[in-house]
Amino acid sequence: MSSSLRARPQTRWWALVVISLTQLIVVLDGTIVSIALPRAQASLGLSDGQRQWVVTAYALAFGALLLLGGRIADYVGRKRTFMIGMVGFGAASLFGGLAQTGWELVLARGLQGVFAALLAPAALALLTVTFPSGRDRNTAFAVFGTVAGTGAAVGLLLGGFLTEFTDWRWCLLVNLFFVAAGLVGGALFLTESKAEGDNRYDVWGAITVTLGLGSLVYGFSLAENGWGDPLTIAFLALGLALLGVFVWVEGRVSQPLLPLRVVADRVRGGAFLIQGVAGAIMIGATLYLTFHLQFVLGMGALQAGVATLPLPIATMVIAPLATKLLTVIGPRPLLVVGPLIAAAGLFVLAGISPDGAYFVQIAPALVLLGVGMGFVFIPLQNLALSGVASHDAGVASAVANSAMQIGGSIGLSVFTAVYAASVGGHAQGELTPIQLTDAYGWIFIVASILMVCASIIAVLMVRGPKEELMPTGQVAVGAH
């Protein structure tokens, strides 16, 4: 038995605190700079294209490298990978906080994504082997899922506070405090584990999936120039082709980067797809919500951050109920109903107007979105890793995280394309509040449709008895 499972109960719960802190860091960093973008853009002279890439670079590097990060965690050791990722993430955050040009900031965000790709799968794999089964596992994943679900909104609030009272640069520098806590907590409470046996790196798999995902996301980011643009089509086609080659490679190598059995399972595959849609909403749609709060309603950075609070509060309030329902009725009903509630909230947001009252048009919509996301995030993490062998724990957790980040990258690019089509290529300074609001409304309509699609995915793919979807048996653990 792993030493992590022999650890005293209080040590395991402290390990959960450290692991959840890590998840908070990597999720909130997807959005913490979003609310500071107007001031960062003015400070560094960012173009509109660079402004989008401050968000996209992080999610793209994160999502594209997560599979490799998962395998590194399995082979090198999850605790060791966790500590390396923490140090690198802190260094990248420091570089970004001191950036003097737009491209330095974009590069720093990309480097943050690279080290987050080591941190995130290592943390989730550590959680999986520390809480292998039973009620403690459900509680641990509920805490972890709540942090994952609210981290993006917490990032908006913290970013608003730091931008208002200090400087936008502290949206990056604040990570140094999180990193220090993570390094100390990791050294004290985390136990090393790694995959057993002959472990070889799948070099060609790593190259094809990284370039494939990168090309795909970059292609979507170019869609704001038009879906028929030759460069857009070329990168989307290249991305799909490279991902096809990746699948072909994975079926033929002895130590695949992504064992196809991890994603071939219908239920697990459905969970990954739903996670991708959720990422598109929490990373992409919330960015344009902050733009509406600041550019149309005239809120300051802190006020705009506070205005997003109904979303994480609703998610945290609903989490205990979702956790209880998960053990009673299983994950499928939650994943069918949750996205529909979130879709209703997004549809209400689509009706915003330039002079509409916040407590009438926005706050109720955010409550609905938060409740819906609470029902979505609580079962997702458990479902994505259900029945996964210890040898694949790192890579399975990487796919779960990658789905959210790549979904966020693609979602942001698609929403940007919808925005560009709505405003007809005009610069933001040339637009009236009515034109801006109309553009944001179309984004929320598309987001609402995506959440309905997530519900349909749950109906079609998350099927089977509750006992099969939520196994109670122990996961085999290999630890050194």
TrEMBL record:
Its main location: membrane. Residues 15-466 form the Major facilitator superfamily (MFS) profile domain. It is a multi-pass membrane protein. It comes from Microbacterium hydrocarbonoxydans. GO terms for molecular function: transmembrane transporter activity. Pfam families: MFS_1. The keyword Ribonucleoprotein does not apply. It is found in: Cell membrane. Residues 334-462 form the SSD domain. One of its GO terms (cellular component) is plasma membrane. Keywords: Cell membrane, Membrane, Transmembrane, Transmembrane helix, Transport. The chain crosses the membrane at residues 12-37, 52-69, 81-99, 111-129, 141-162, 168-191, 203-220, 232-249, 270-289, 295-322, 334-352, 358-378, 399-420, 440-462. CDD domains: MFS_MMR_MDR_like. This is Drug resistance transporter, EmrB/QacA subfamily.
